[in-house]
Automatic annotation (TrEMBL):
<dbReference type="GO" id="GO:0005524">
    <property type="term" value="F:ATP binding"/>
</dbReference>
<keyword id="KW-0539">Nucleus</keyword>
<keyword id="KW-0547">Nucleotide-binding</keyword>
<dbReference type="InterPro" id="IPR027417">
    <property type="entry name" value="P-loop_NTPase"/>
</dbReference>
<dbReference type="GO" id="GO:0003688">
    <property type="term" value="F:DNA replication origin binding"/>
</dbReference>
<comment type="subunit">
    <text>ORC is composed of six subunits.</text>
</comment>
<dbReference type="GO" id="GO:0006270">
    <property type="term" value="P:DNA replication initiation"/>
</dbReference>
<dbReference type="GO" id="GO:0033314">
    <property type="term" value="P:mitotic DNA replication checkpoint signaling"/>
</dbReference>
<protein>
    <recommendedName>
        <fullName>Origin recognition complex subunit 1</fullName>
    </recommendedName>
</protein>
<comment type="function">
    <text>Component of the origin recognition complex (ORC) that binds origins of replication. DNA-binding is ATP-dependent, however specific DNA sequences that define origins of replication have not been identified so far. ORC is required to assemble the pre-replication complex necessary to initiate DNA replication.</text>
</comment>
<keyword id="KW-0238">DNA-binding</keyword>
<dbReference type="InterPro" id="IPR050311">
    <property type="entry name" value="ORC1/CDC6"/>
</dbReference>
<dbReference type="GO" id="GO:0005664">
    <property type="term" value="C:nuclear origin of replication recognition complex"/>
</dbReference>
<comment type="similarity">
    <text>Belongs to the ORC1 family.</text>
</comment>
<keyword id="KW-0067">ATP-binding</keyword>
<keyword id="KW-0235">DNA replication</keyword>
């Protein structure tokens, strides 16, 4: 029974069992509320860090992404300030921890409408320090980093 070959049925079942199949974080309303409150506070007061931890597959990433999407909708509706959300997946996006600075700097350049530079970690770190620390009077775009 069922539609398709055994291989096609297996592929459909495997897709549905994958972590990416779930489109909503069910039963995580309290966590969503806490994260959205932090995001709004971070945008207004500049709260520097939120650490989200939990066991693998518990929905941490999905909850944060849902909160960011809700905040994006609120920004479009002018309920919160406009912001840019940068996602850095350490497994997918960077091969070594030293590449973090380079990857982040390139993401910021793209937000600013500029081409990525592909700088080495030390030079990218210098640019990030200049961007975030030394240019205090420059109008920068708000960034939430995940």
């Amino acid at each position: 029974g069922g539609k398709g070959t055994d291989l096609e049925r297996y592929a459909r079942v495997r897709e549905r069992l994958s972590l990416s199949f779930c489109k909503a974080a069910v039963g995580r309303n309290e966590e969503k509320k806490q994260i959205q409150t932090w995001m709004k506070h971070a945008m207004n007061k500049g709260s520097p860090l939120l650490y989200v931890s939990g066991i693998v597959g518990s929905g941490k990433t999905l909850v944060v992404l849902e909160c960011a999407e809700q905040m994006r909708k609120e920004a479009v509706a002018k309920k919160v300030a406009e912001f840019h959300f940068i996602v850095i997946n350490a497994v997918r996006d960077i091969k070594a921890s030293v590449q973090f600075y380079s990857y982040l700097w390139d993401q910021i350049l793209m937000i600013e409408g500029k081409a990525p530079q592909g700088l080495g970690p030390s030079k990218a770190r210098e640019h990030l320090q200049e961007y975030f620390i030394h240019k205090v009077n420059v109008k920068r775009k708000r960034i939430l980093l995940f």
